[in-house]
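FW: tagging you since you asked about this chain on Friday. Here's the raw sequence from the shared folder, copied in full. Didn't touch anything.
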Amino acid sequence: FPSHDIPAEIAFTVRTLSVLAVVGFGVLLAFARYRTLAHQLLTWFLNRLPFLKRLHLTELLDQVLDGLRPLTNWRKLLFAVAWTIISWSISIVTIYLIQISVQGVPLDTWLLSGLIASLASLAIAVPLSVASVGPLENAVLAAGNLLGFSATTSLAMGLLFHGVSVATYLVCGTLGIVRMGVTLGDVMQEKK
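HL: got it, structure written out here
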C-alpha cells in the first residue's frame, strides 16, 4: 500500500489479516485432504464445549470439506487459482477504467479499484436483493467514501460498474447457454 494515505496501523492490520486468510485457507485444504484429523479436532472441541453440539457442526464440516475436496488435487487447485486471478484482474481493470472515465486519474486509483472489487464481491455474495441492486452500489459508495471521493462520483462508479457487470453476465451467459444447447424450457424444468 502506498504509505502516504493509509495509516500504519490500518496497513499492518490489512497485511496481518491477508496472511491469516491465506494460512486459514491452507489449513482448510489440509483438512479436506485429511478429513479424519478435522473430525478429531472438531470432536475434541465439541467434547469441551457441549453446547455447540446443537449447531450440527459435524454436518457443516462435512459440507465444507466436500466442497474443498476437488482443490486438494494440485492441477485443479492451480486451475481454480488461475481463473480466480483472471476474473479478479478483469474486475479490477474494469473498475480502474470506469474510475478514470468518471474522475480522471486520482492518486490511489489501483487501491480504490481493489477495494471496490472486494466490497462489491461481498455485496454480490450476500443475496439481499435481485441482482444485488442497491448493495453493490452501496459497497462502491463506501469504498469511495473511505478514500475521500465524493458521494456523487462514487455512486456514478457503482452504477457504471453494475451496468457493465450485468451486461457482461448477460452476453457471456447467453453465449454459454447457446453453446451448451440449453433452452429456456430446460432451465425452467431444472428449477421445478
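FW: The two ends are 49 Å apart (CA to CA).
HL: agreed, and The first helix runs from residue 8 to 33.
FW: great, closing this out.
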